[in-house]
Amino acid sequence: MQRYALSAGMQVFIERTRAFGVADPALTAQRAAYSRMAAAFTPPCPKGVQVRDLSLPGLAPLRVFQPAQSAPADGWPALLFMHGGGWMLGGLDSHAFFCAELTARLEVLVVAVDYRLSPETPFPAALHDSLAAWRALRDGVLDIPIDPTRLVAIGDSAGGNLAAALCLALREAGEPQPRMQALIYPALGDEDSVSRRECADAPLLSVADMQACLNAYLPSTTRSPLALPLLADNFKGLAPAFIAVAEFDPLRDDGLLYAQRLEDHGVTVDYFPGHGLVHGCLRARELPEVEQLYEALLAALENSLD
User: What is the pLDDT of residue 222?
Assistant: First the structure.
């Protein structure tokens, strides 16, 4: 980590996260280790947040985070959240801390999607699960009072990929866009970039790690913008975006390039450069540099849902 100008607190966070790593390369062992790590960084659910799981025919399992008070007259503004983990790891528990905080801080409904994982079910399974959940939420299938005009697609890392791809898929289908696409250190392409070279061995996500995830998610012949949104040649009409990247992350330029291409096609972008951040740092809640990310994200969401 000597090449990366990390704060002392960030270095402690990285070492604590790495302590959960296991040498066993088996996917079951890696998933179990990731779950243990996520549990160690998950605080108690905030007061005033109700949590319940939904299992409905034709949908991936969902978890609903809802304010305890009565819904507004027009229904809840709502976020559909897609978790990170390289399309291979994580689930409803791994990012519950984040969904619960968004609900508590913004007084909105958050629905998390337990999409199918790779390599057992590669692209497009996770996107199909996310789209089905989006449509169910929007169309009232979940039997929750929501305002269908105030919906946001949000995700981190692989989940950021799915949120961006969801917007592209909705545009292709002629369906309304979310109020906003909120992407946190998203994985959006596979082209060479400065960040891939500068951050090839970055802490918590190296280029080799990233490539292994892409190899598992994408069949070798897949070159679809719905898999890698940076492959799109037209970004017109997509939802306004909040894009946060991490400075010391091989994916940094994925977010930057996506922001530039959206702006080139007339889409409004709120870009957060993530100075001092590393991939996966949403769990480092006590650090001031991470707090800046949260405050920027919360402000963008609040403005979008007004």
Answer: 77
Domain ranges of the chain: 8-305
Q: Is 279 a catalytic residue?
A: yes
Q: What is the pLDDT of residues 208-240, one digit of tens each?
A: 999 999 999 998 777 899 999 999 999 999 999
For residue 2, the model assigns a pLDDT of 54
Is 130 among the catalytic positions?
Answer: no
pLDDT in tens, 10-25: 999 999 999 999 999 9
Helix (H, G, I), strand (E, B) or coil at 150: strand
The CATH architecture of the domain made up of 8-305 is 3-Layer(aba) Sandwich (3.40)
pTM given for the model:
0.97
CA proximity to 20, closest of 37, 32, 35: 37
Which of 114, 129, 249, 270 is an active site residue? 249
Q: How far apart are CA 37 and CA 300, in angstroms?
A: 29
Amino acid at 89: L
Active-site option among 94, 157, 195, 304: 157
Kindly provide the b/e burial profile for residues 192-214, where b requires at least 16 CB atoms within 10 angstroms of the residue's own CB. ebebbebbeebbbbbbeebeebb
- The answer to whether 246 and 279 are in contact (CB under 8 A) is yes
Which residues, in sequence order, are CB contacts of 296 under 8 Å at separation 6+?
242, 244, 270, 272
- The one catalytic residue in 253, 270, 279, 304 is 279
